[in-house]
Description:
By secondary structure, the protein is of the alpha/beta class. Helix content is 42%, strand content 21%. It is built from twelve helices and twelve strands.
Amino acid sequence: MNLTRFENENNSVDVSIIIVNYNTRELLRECLCSIRECKVSKEIIVVDNASTDSSVEMLTRDFPDVMIIRNSQNDRFAKPNNQAMRKAGGRYIFLLNSDTVLMPDSLSVLLKYMDKNGRVGMCAPQLLYPDGSIQPSCRGFVNLWTHFCDMSALDRLFPRSILFAKSEMRYFNHKSLKEVDHVMAAALLIRRQVIEQVGMFDENLSINYNDLDLSLRVHQHNWKVIYNPEAQVIHHHGKTTNMMNKNFELFDELYKNVFYYFHKHYGRWSVVFYKLFMIFGFSLRTVYWSVRFMFDQSAKTKYYLKFSLRSVFTALCFWKTE
Length: 322
């Protein structure tokens, strides 16, 4: 069943590279320069979320071959990616964060792997921090058990346990090819046929769990999700959202997305129990950070204390699931 209609049905290039940008002009420039070195048939679509740092002017001047979609406001992540996917003409869709740098052969490695493995629906490269160290990017599906393990710190007490730490997958060293539940969408190659079959991002998940939701639907349609470390991408992790997170601009929206995801996939009672586990876990964290604050008034301590308190208050109305 075809759930998605692309506006461009030509399949004129191998891959459509989609980047969502919000005030990351110089990072975006570096990203686009790295794409130029990739010797594959491609088109580049940049969706700008009303940047105020002259990103669009830079694109128009320095990258005239890039298709630009200009939004009048910051539409976060899911909706802008969907906007671009509808315009895409490639056999594959490559979702890419603006704070990434591609290694010259990374995209061709992913394309060759996907072409040889027809049941692979999505494939992700190895992500690296700017210093060259590996950035963990594979995750297990989240559910009430994984949430309980997080809130009770079982996942940190037993980080190598598949039973207790499946969500974060700390037991996986990210050095070998592996079929996984979910990979971060910072750099993610998707087969066009998959999008046609399972649909695009759920726009109710504006900034959080949208890639997780897509991965779950991909698995439900019997496609494989693969992590392939032979391809590598540098990722300046969090550069696009860190400032808003530190200022708590995204706090309510993040939790709204989480509650929506659990309600969608596990039912309304899962949201009730999710919030009860939050009250338990973040109450303990509030006590810990309060005691620590008496001896350490650093910005980090203040942030985590505030985050813990706000999380408890967010979950207090645990019976509300909408």
